[in-house]
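Researcher: Let's continue the batch. This sequence belongs to PXMP4 protein, and it's 213 residues. Same format as the previous ones, please.
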Amino acid sequence: AGGGGAALRALLRAANALLQQRRYRAALAVLKGFRNGAVYGAKIRAPHALVMTFLFKSGSLREKLKSIAQATYTHSRNLACFVFTYKGLMALQSRLQGKKIPFHAFFAACIGGWLVFGENNPINSQIIMYLLSRVLFGLSRLAVEKGYIPQPKQDPFPLVAALIWGTVLWLFEYHRQTLQPSLQSSMTYLYDDSNVWHDISDFLIYNKRTDGK
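Model: Same format as before. Here are the structure tokens for PXMP4 protein:
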């Protein structure tokens, strides 16, 4: 047992020494990026999938748990692979050109996005739409910072909020099929299901009656 412990300590010392080697820093950063992508993807997706599955999906407990595990795995894997690809291409471009330039980030992320998130499935679609809203806000702020758009005299956020909510409810009421399925489910629960009840049980306690009456 003592020999095993000593061997483990020696292995840990060797690993720590390797991690301090500057020449391996770029490659190790790529590996840690893969690790962080996997962990972050699981942390983000697992609670979201848990809530959405038990709120809106039917099926047995086994089927629901399988759906949650599959969604969590897919999100975690995709994010890990994207971070690995992005950081690897960033390191490669910097090594080839001898310096880091802004185009490197755009090009590396484009390649990673195409390879990892290019498949049109519910999880990738949700991630892309999440990023799209952030990109639009970021580009708007950048345009103001660079002077392409004049600084607003008043906070434009109330107008943006009004237009976004007005548009999404108009789409829901009259062009529902254009919205993402998870958004349709959420809005159906909020705006359609609240129009239907039979007695106090499905007015206050439950959303829908399950007794077949």
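Researcher: Any comment?
Model: The mean pLDDT is 92.
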